[in-house]
């Protein structure tokens, strides 16, 4: 399964594209979240290595910036995943819809690595069913490397994935009214604007087998994203009537899995997530002007917005004939 996920030709190398091959699963059109069994995407619970990976404020997963970021975890880092549409056990919880469990890669006794580079120029983009093809370009590159510091004991795996994308959006000629721009020069706009969607993720993981019965794991996933003119792709907005979207996400996980006796097992997980999602305006100090039936001028009124998620999760599951578990979560929010 690991090699199948790695080699599949996914657009943007986003592993969630594989999730949508599961019956009753689709991608939400508004924010791009995973919808299962007709439920809203914010009701889908996603865990990575057994730990909750959901943004408690916006919904969806960490590192997605409400669906604007290209990817949250690199395809290079995914070992396997499972989709549960219904009937999940109580330990998964926090799910009014379905459940997606993701397991990341670890190192092995053999050194192994990979590298990739993808380029999607304008000429290779297909024509849309309606309208003209927009000027666009996408580049994506990265790689991975893993192995053992100490064979059969201490392993490592790391990966990097970067995507740079640009899309040129022409503005409706009705919005580019010369009389309006002559009377109010501060509202003047070029005939088109370029929207960027640049993101990168860095992942690293360490595994230590103290003995056949006791195993420790630590991993980190770092992601950032910037989208100039990323608030909207509408052709009825001037260049200034848009925003600069951003996201900086850091996730740290430590876990212990131990077998204490023939019928007593313990799985302990600790996670700390810090995620900033700044959404900025153009800083021009212009009002929000909306002309019905024509377009929008000035600056977006609801920007700037900044939110910070600072979340700590402690989860322990004890198996002794009947599984017993406990979870502690602390989620302060600053906005």
From TrEMBL:
A Gene Ontology term for the protein's cellular component: cell outer membrane
TonB-dependent transporter Oar-like beta-barrel domain boundaries: 103-166
InterPro entries in UniProt: Oar-like_b-barrel, Plug_dom_sf, TonB-dep_rcpt-like
Pfam families in UniProt: OMP_b-brl_4
GO biological process: siderophore transmembrane transport
SUPFAM superfamilies: Porins (SSF56935)
Domain of life: Bacteria
GO MF annotation list: siderophore uptake transmembrane transporter activity
Name of the molecule in the record: TonB-dependent transporter Oar-like beta-barrel domain-containing protein
């Amino acid at each position: 399964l690991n090699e199948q996920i790695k080699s599949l030709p996914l657009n943007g190398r986003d592993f969630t594209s594989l999730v949508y091959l599961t019956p009753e699963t689709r991608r939400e059109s508004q924010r791009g979240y995973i919808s299962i069994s007709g439920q809203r995407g914010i009701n889908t619970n996603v865990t990575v290595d057994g730990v909750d990976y959901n943004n408690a404020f916006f919904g969806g997963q960490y590192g997605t910036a409400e669906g604007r970021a290209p990817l949250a975890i690199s395809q290079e880092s995914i070992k396997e995943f499972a989709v549960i549409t219904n009937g999940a056990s109580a330990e998964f919880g926090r799910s009014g819809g379905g459940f997606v469990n993701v397991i990341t890669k670890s190192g092995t006794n053999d050194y192994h690595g990979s590298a990739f580079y993808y380029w999607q120029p304008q000429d290779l983009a297909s024509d849309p069913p309606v309208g003209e093809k927009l000027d666009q370009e996408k580049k994506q590159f990265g790689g991975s490397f893993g192995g053992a510091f100490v064979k059969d004991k201490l392993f490592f795996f790391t990966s990097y994935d970067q995507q740079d994308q640009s899309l040129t959006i022409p503005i409706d000629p009705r919005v580019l009214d010369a009389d309006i721009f002559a009377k109010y020069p501060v509202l003047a706009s070029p005939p088109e604007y370029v929207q960027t969607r640049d993101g990168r993720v860095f992942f690293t993981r360490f595994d230590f087998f103290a003995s056949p019965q006791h195993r420790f794991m630590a991993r980190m996933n770092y992601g950032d994203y910037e989208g100039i003119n990323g608030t909207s792709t509408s052709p009825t907005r001037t260049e200034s009537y848009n925003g600069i979207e951003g996201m900086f996400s850091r996730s740290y996980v430590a876990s212990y899995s131990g077998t204490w006796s023939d019928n007593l097992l313990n799985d302990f997980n600790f996670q700390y997530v810090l995620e900033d999602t700044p959404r900025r305006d153009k800083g021009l100090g212009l009002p929000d002007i909306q002309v019905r039936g024509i377009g929008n001028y000035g600056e977006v009124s609801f920007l700037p917005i900044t939110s910070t998620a600072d979340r700590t999760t402690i989860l322990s599951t004890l198996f002794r004939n009947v599984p017993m578990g406990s979870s502690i979560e602390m989620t302060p929010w600053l906005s």
